[in-house]
DNA sequence: GGCCAGGCTAGCA
DNA sequence: TGCTAGCATGGC
């Protein structure tokens, strides 16, 4: 069955899915001009495909019939995932005042942040990604989902939903270290899942808190540092003014963009970012994307040079 | 072969 | 309170 949601103005679906196709190869599969993945509703996991239809709306197709309640829930999850409530116009106006930053915008007009469908998934993905290059992190996430997720068949393909917190809470550390997660990350992931199951940690109850309060509450758990909360704020809670000032990718991007000899420190990043508020999440996201694109270009250039 | 990844913790001064 | 070695492995 199909649902549709209108896209906001300044929304480029094409540019927005590019990044998903690149970084979420493990969970997203393209078929019949739609991007498919498993999504967990409160009642069950389903397989969902999305595309932009001829009317310019987001079209969502589910592998199975959905109840009225499930339809509402799915629309809410998709609105959040694809940042459909975000109007980028004021962000672009602000960026126009900074020519260097603005140089990254024209190639990314309408490019929106793609968030995780749920907070637990976001937390675990972020912990797995700590201190790893994104490509290896993607491999580990893929193994984790394949191993412990629920399998659903659709369009002659198998999809795995993100593992439930109950399932993960029941695992042994060894179940994760065999996937090549480190002993410590295995402990973080399983201990946090147990804390959630036992009611010691309730991610959704923090929804109405301020960024600072969420930071204070979550950072007290083992395995969750500043960076992890910042990612959770951006990709889980959907906060628009997050600055992961110590993030290596953001610092590399600023170094490259400003043509600096050295990588800016966390303090210097805060100096760069003093006029980014209240759009720091978007500036960060655009700079991350700028960095990946530039890396790709330099790789192609090097390859061409070597082949000559 | 060595250094670096969209970090975090424990242990030490 | 602030600093840093160690974690672990793929990619370049």
UniProtKB/TrEMBL annotation:
<keyword id="KW-0227">DNA damage</keyword>
<dbReference type="Pfam" id="PF00730">
    <property type="entry name" value="HhH-GPD"/>
</dbReference>
<dbReference type="GO" id="GO:0005737">
    <property type="term" value="C:cytoplasm"/>
</dbReference>
<dbReference type="GO" id="GO:0008725">
    <property type="term" value="F:DNA-3-methyladenine glycosylase activity"/>
</dbReference>
<keyword id="KW-0326">Glycosidase</keyword>
<keyword id="KW-0378">Hydrolase</keyword>
<dbReference type="InterPro" id="IPR023170">
    <property type="entry name" value="HhH_base_excis_C"/>
</dbReference>
<keyword id="KW-0234">DNA repair</keyword>
<feature type="domain" description="HhH-GPD">
    <location>
        <begin position="128"/>
        <end position="294"/>
    </location>
</feature>
<dbReference type="InterPro" id="IPR051912">
    <property type="entry name" value="Alkylbase_DNA_Glycosylase/TA"/>
</dbReference>
<dbReference type="GO" id="GO:0006307">
    <property type="term" value="P:DNA alkylation repair"/>
</dbReference>
<dbReference type="InterPro" id="IPR003265">
    <property type="entry name" value="HhH-GPD_domain"/>
</dbReference>
<dbReference type="InterPro" id="IPR037046">
    <property type="entry name" value="AlkA_N_sf"/>
</dbReference>
<comment type="similarity">
    <text>Belongs to the alkylbase DNA glycosidase AlkA family.</text>
</comment>
<dbReference type="GO" id="GO:0032993">
    <property type="term" value="C:protein-DNA complex"/>
</dbReference>
<dbReference type="GO" id="GO:0043916">
    <property type="term" value="F:DNA-7-methylguanine glycosylase activity"/>
</dbReference>
<protein>
    <recommendedName>
        <fullName>DNA-3-methyladenine glycosylase II</fullName>
        <ecNumber>3.2.2.21</ecNumber>
    </recommendedName>
</protein>
<dbReference type="GO" id="GO:0032131">
    <property type="term" value="F:alkylated DNA binding"/>
</dbReference>
<dbReference type="InterPro" id="IPR011257">
    <property type="entry name" value="DNA_glycosylase"/>
</dbReference>
<dbReference type="GO" id="GO:0006285">
    <property type="term" value="P:base-excision repair, AP site formation"/>
</dbReference>
